[in-house]
Amino acid sequence: MGAVTPAAPSAEAGAFEEAERTLLAEYGVPAESRYVRLADPALTVRVLECGAGDPLVLVHGSGMSAPTWAPMLAHLGDRRVLAVDLPGFGSSDPCDYSDRPLRAHAVAQLRSLLDALELQRVPLAGTSLGAMWAMNLALAHPERVTSVVALGIPAVALPGMKADPFFRAMTMPGVRAVASRVPPPRSASAARRAMKGAMGRPATERMPDAFFDVVRTGMRTAGWKKAMSTHLNRARSGGKPRPECLFSDDELRSFEVPVLFVIGDADVYGPPAVVERAAALMPGARVEVMSGGHAPFLDHPERCAGLIRAW
Length: 311
Fold this sequence. Notes:
The chain is of the alpha/beta class. It contains 14 helices and 10 strands. It has helices spanning 11-26, 70-73, 102-116, 129-140, 165-170, 175-179, 188-199, 201-206, 209-218, 224-235, 249-253, 273-281, 296-299, 301-310; strands at 31-37, 44-50, 54-59, 79-84, 122-127, 145-151, 236-237, 240-241, 259-264, 286-290. Strands 1-2-4-3-5-6-9-10 form an 8-stranded mixed β-sheet, with helices on both faces. A hairpin with a 2-residue loop joins strand 7 (236-237) and strand 8 (240-241). The longest helix is centred in the N-terminal third of the chain and has 16 residues, at 11-26. It is globular and about 50 Å long.
């Protein structure tokens, strides 16, 4: 395990890398790509590294990639930020998530990532699926995690979370075959319109075209469709969350790692009450509610960076 030299990029991967460079430049974020080999699953992932100081690992949401953190990265220059492209997304190797439960994937991937980066114990921040990933590692291996910041409702982790129409369609028999054939947006403006429901109007209107170019070119990379379909169907069945993905009340009570939930008051996946109920059961947990949707780090990037730094 350790540094890996990537192969020459395909045309789709090259388009994603160009979109990433443009987005990072838009926010004045100097960053370098680092490729490491995971032990489990046995594949190579890309880590976007920037800043200097104490390490912080960022885990993106479903279907996204490391550079989508750019608005918040601009306010974290005093930390050594390591933002991973999860397997199947961004510049990481393709991955089929159908071979084991989603929570097992979360623990294996992040534990292997920390090993590959030679990080013994670090703070984690994740959004949506990334928040679920971080919470699962913290529960299974509290000795590896100092703290967790969950931005937006953690995906399929807490009772009461809702699903948006696309995710529901992708996990409904008969419907998912049709939904999976819908082509990625052809332009930044089309991607902006498509994401308005999940992100909320303020965030989608505030983000530059470069952000949506990263999203849409990421959807065209070789592994995106397979990773998206297989992990969604490990998360949901018949449009509903799989019970085995959800934390039980006893598990929430057993958390040893402090967790900060940062949630928008108009999160499309559920109201603040969803995380407030969980936090009431968890030792050392706290909830921060702010205006906005499912991506607080886009609605309030500087404030979220400050919360992460303080937590």
